């Protein structure tokens, strides 16, 4: 069947069966300027109830994305899926902001605006008791990133793989 004129503006993401067996939660899409010319970068994930983290305080410091900044603004959306109460997130997420790593706990459907060059993360889903959706959008075609490893406690830095979180286009 011939492609229609505007089919190019639709994108469907399919996770492999192997990825679903490894972890039922995870990405549902990732887009940027390579997906469509002029498209801002974004990623979305679906989280299902999983086994809880045994020691959330320790987990937060050596997991998730380390502190970093982007040249452009970023928007993080945390969306609950309860049709009777869309404000109910069904999860507990911890997000650290600023050079002092101010701790914020998200338990309701929430949008977080991250201004350009503002230090943010770690971001960690600590508990999930109902399915929820996470969306992240950058105000650029490709996300830039510069790590701020120096603000982490010294004993934490060796526990995080710097090659997994390289500086990008900064």
Question: Which helices and strands appear, and what pairs or packs with what?
Answer:
Elements: H1 17-22, E1 26-31, E2 42-47, H2 56-62, E3 68-69, E4 74-80, E5 88-97, E6 102-108, E7 110-114, E8 120-128, E9 132-138, E10 146-147
Antiparallel strand pairs: 1-2, 2-9, 3-10, 4-7, 4-9, 5-6, 5-8
Name its key features:
3-stranded antiparallel beta sheet, 5-stranded antiparallel beta sheet, 170 residues, mainly beta, 36% strand, Jelly Rolls, globular
Do you know the CATH topology? Jelly Rolls
Rg calculated over all Cα atoms: 17 Å
What is the mean pLDDT? 83
Helical proportion, percent range: under 10%
Residue windows where pLDDT falls under 50 for at least 5 positions:
none
Instruction: Just name the CATH architecture.
Output: Sandwich
Tell me the number of strands. 10
* CATH classification class: Mainly Beta
**H/E order of the elements?**
HEEHEEEEEEEE
What is the overall shape? globular
Strand content: 35-45%
Distance between the termini: 44 Å
Question: How would you describe this protein?
Answer:
The protein is mainly beta and 170 residues long. It has one domain: Jelly Rolls (Sandwich). The protein is 8% helix and 36% strand. The protein has two helices and ten strands; from the N terminus they run H-E-E-H-E-E-E-E-E-E-E-E. It has helices at residues 17-22, 56-62, and strands at 26-31, 42-47, 68-69, 74-80, 88-97, 102-108, 110-114, 120-128, 132-138, 146-147. Strands 1-2-9-4-7 form a five-stranded antiparallel beta sheet, with no helix packed on it. 16% of the residues are buried.
């Amino acid at each position: 069947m011939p492609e229609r004129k505007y089919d190019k503006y639709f994108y469907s993401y399919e996770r492999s069966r192997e990825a679903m067996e490894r972890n039922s939660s995870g990405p549902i899409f990732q887009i940027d300027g390579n997906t469509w010319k002029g498209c801002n970068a974004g990623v979305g994930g679906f989280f299902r109830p999983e086994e809880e983290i045994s020691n959330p305080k320790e987990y937060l410091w050596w997991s998730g994305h380390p502190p970093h900044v982007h040249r452009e603004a970023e928007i993080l959306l945390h969306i609950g899926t309860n049709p009777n109460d869309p404000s109910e997130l069904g999860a507990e997420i911890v997000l650290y902001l600023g050079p002092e790593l101010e701790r914020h706990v998200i338990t309701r459907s929430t949008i977080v605006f991250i201004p350009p060059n503002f230090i943010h993360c770690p971001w960690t889903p600590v508990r999930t008791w109902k399915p929820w959706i996470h969306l992240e959008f950058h105000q650029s075609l490709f996300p830039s990133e510069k790590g701020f490893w120096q603000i982490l406690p010294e004993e934490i830095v060796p526990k995080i793989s710097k090659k997994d979180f390289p500086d990008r286009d900064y």
